[in-house]
Amino acid sequence: MSPNVVEPDNSTALPMPMDLTSLFVPSMRGPQKSAFKSVMGNPTLAMINMAGGVPHPSTFPILQLRATVKSPGSTSTSSDRHSTLELEKSRRCQSTESLDELLQYGDGCGVDSYCAFLRRYTQRVHRPLYAEWGVIASCGNTDAIGKAVSLFCEPGDTILVERWTFPGALSSLAAARVKPVPVAMDGEGMLPEELDRTCRKWSGAAAPRAVYLVPTGQNPTGTTMSLARRKAIYAVAQKHNLAIIEDDPYYFLQLPLLVGTSNDATPDSLSDLQQQQQQQQKGALVPSLLSLDVDGRVIRLDSFSKVLAPNLRSGWITAPTYILDKLQILNESTILQPSGLSQGLISKLLNDTWGLDGWEAHLCELRAVYTYRRNLFIRAVDRHLSGLVEYTVPAAGMFLWMKLNLGHATADPAAMSQLLGSMKKFGVMMAPGMPFSSTGSVVDTAESGPAQPEHYLRAAFALVDIDMFEPALKRLAQAMAAVRAEHSQPLPDLVPATGIPSTVVDHSAITN
Ligand SMILES: Cc1ncc(COP(=O)(O)O)c(C=O)c1O
């Protein structure tokens, strides 16, 4: 089965996507098929199919699956706000496949009812502007990034990325021996003029063919591109004929901005924020790059990790169907298909139990919860770290990216190691900037970049209890004070003229 094509009623009037095949690595350009399928072909109904190593479903021991789920949009754990969803062994339950089908081998596209929901939802939210697009299931964005990159890059190639970026993407690139080319950012993410300037440095076959970016609630910087920024980035991608890998796991966690962040401001109550979200519904979301994509050059990666649960390991990729055909083959040669059980649960929840409106109510609830947390956290930062940090209020996602003022210690390349040691002593942990650096250095590589190291911490306000915000930030302030006190005098010229050694920190624990 090929990836689902959008219903003809809304696609026939739309133009076909551009053909990006020339941007693919040579091994992806020709038609691909799994070796087995190319020998066997597809079975017809009349055939007695004895070809596959497929177990008989009567041997599957799971006879029924029943899950209790919250009502959409409810934070309540009380049982009167619950619904039950059920999957049956050999019987389809409304829209969703039977357990026997979900547990059986399938093709690399994903479970039909799961993909059908996501296609409808993509149409509702992003309204793609070209014909013949579809969705395919993924095991979440980490897996999807590697697959999308492998369409355009082979060992030795380059890919454009944000100056600070998701370490999982950097690991994927390192494993594929693809070199990240950093593009400078500001408070709205990647700078279009810097993207253009960077692209102009190349010509011919060596030029990067793709840009990887996180446009919403960027990890680690928390930045969100405005509509104008998205349009400008898209225009540069058109100018240099780049494919865009839009990694957007925080898209649905767009958080209305704080009106004021003064110390005495009372945080909005959670119930006010919930009401506000329900009124705004989806209208308030910044359009995705996919929704601006007239050419079909965006490969959009969505994940359920931040909006349902990370270890469902489920997401979806949206792109022109000829690109999804390639990704299907990549699925079939690696994972075969994401877990049918996870897809079945999600499909049942979204198709039948919550429905589209329930799903949107759930997303509104999440936005209210994270807005509440963000607001409380920012106000606590202002109370405890005034003068010690600079930040942009994140308009989406889970992260506050703080540029640290370490006083005279700032110029010391060892300052971050000292600070992390001090934070450990005072009992608080946040992620240092280094593992997110696409240059491998704390110093900007752009010619116009600063001459001395910059020190950053990424604080995630999603997980810890909100009454831990104040103690965490007090501890950070103490840890910073200790480092600053050790450097009460300006340092002798510690910074070498060329290249600054990286801070020595064990980053292996930071993967997301
Ligand atoms: C930008 C970005 N992309 C991808 C991921 C991983 O997503 P998934 O859990 O879907 O693999 C994360 C998670 O931290 C992320 O921040």
TrEMBL record:
GO terms for molecular function: pyridoxal phosphate binding; transaminase activity. Residues 70-89 are annotated as: Disordered. Residues 79-89 have a biased composition (Basic and acidic residues). The keyword Cell inner membrane does not apply. The keyword Transferase applies. Residues 100-442 form the Aminotransferase class I/classII large domain. Its cofactor is pyridoxal 5'-phosphate. Gene3D superfamilies: Type I PLP-dependent aspartate aminotransferase-like (Major domain). Keywords: Aminotransferase, Pyridoxal phosphate, Transferase. One of its GO terms (biological process) is alpha-amino acid metabolic process. Belongs to the class-I pyridoxal-phosphate-dependent aminotransferase family. This is Aminotransferase class I/classII large domain-containing protein. It comes from Coemansia thaxteri. The lineage of its organism: Eukaryota, Fungi, Fungi incertae sedis, Zoopagomycota, Kickxellomycotina.
